[in-house]
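Colleagues,

For the teaching module next term, I've prepared a clean inverse folding example: a structure given as tokens, and then the sequence designed for it. I'd like students to try predicting residues themselves before seeing the answer, so please don't circulate the second half yet.
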């Protein structure tokens, strides 16, 4: 079938035949845009904490059947995730913007420099 369609099919070579066409929008730039790593970190955090919510909702639904063993398991799970969140916060993994202390320090140095001149 493929060989037959190749031989019997239409052949035309117009100017826009080889152009990429996506949803009726003409392509202007390269589709491979470089994103900062922060976007990927946010996506990973979302997946991690979204799964946490799914596990805890499942635990809450089966609270009666899980009993104390399930409660302790959910508590340990939550404590580990909280420890990871605090660790990420402490090492600066959640700092996406400029550091306010560095900005104030640079502003004060600039102000002192302008006062001395």
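(Answer key — instructors only)
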């Amino acid at each position: 079938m493929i060989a037959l369609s190749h031989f019997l099919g239409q052949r035309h070579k117009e100017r826009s035949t080889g152009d990429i066409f996506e949803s009726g929008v003409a392509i202007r730039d390269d589709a491979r845009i470089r994103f900062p790593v922060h976007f990927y970190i946010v996506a990973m955090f979302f997946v991690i904490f979204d799964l946490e919510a799914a596990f805890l909702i499942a635990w809450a639904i089966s609270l009666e059947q899980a009993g104390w063993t399930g409660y302790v398991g959910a508590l340990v799970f939550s404590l580990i995730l909280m420890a990871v969140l605090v660790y990420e916060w402490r090492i600066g993994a959640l700092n996406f913007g400029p550091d306010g202390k560095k900005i104030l320090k640079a502003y004060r140095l600039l102000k002192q420099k302008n006062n001395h001149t």
